[in-house]
Amino acid sequence: MSFIDTATLNIVERRSGWLGRFFDSGAMTFGHYEFRKGADIHPHSHEQEEVWHILEGELQITIGGQSVVAGPGFVGIVPPNVVHSVIALSDGKATVVDSPRRAIPGI
């Protein structure tokens, strides 16, 4: 069994306002994000299923054309190859999991 102290992982700013610490398990990629109000992730898709779990703050998440405002405890599930985007409505934190594993530039 493996253990990871995410506080010791390097912080990567993949997009302006999205500060993440990343690691992989055998089948998944995990991103522990801190996001800043106004930061966005443009509409895009990828072959991985992606699960967003909001821990603090609020995000507007759009999946396949349907938008919701997501706060703490909310989970958004993005099916493979479905266009999605995110806008940070406040500062906050979220965990994002991709399956299968995904290459993250800069880590």
Descriptive overview:
By secondary structure, the chain is mainly β. The protein has one domain (6-99): Jelly Rolls, CATH 2.60.120.10. It has no helices and 10 strands. The protein has strands at 12-15, 18-24, 29-35, 40-44, 49-56, 59-63, 66-70, 75-78, 84-88, 92-99. The mean pLDDT is 95.
Features:
Jelly Rolls; six-stranded antiparallel β-sheet; four-stranded antiparallel β-sheet; mainly beta; 107 residues
Summary of the model, kept short:
The chain is mainly β and 107 residues long.
Task: Give the helix/strand layout.
Elements: E1 12-15, E2 18-24, E3 29-35, E4 40-44, E5 49-56, E6 59-63, E7 66-70, E8 75-78, E9 84-88, E10 92-99
Antiparallel strand pairs: 1-2, 2-3, 3-10, 4-9, 5-8, 5-10, 6-7, 6-9
- Under the CATH scheme, which class? Mainly Beta
Order of helices and strands: EEEEEEEEEE
CATH topology, by name, is Jelly Rolls
CATH architecture identity: Sandwich
The total count of helices amounts to 0
In one word, what is the shape? globular
* Average of the residue pLDDT scores: 95
> Strand percentage, roughly?
over 45%
Helix content: under 10%
- What characterizes the major β-sheet? 6 strands, antiparallel
The chain-level structural class is: mainly beta
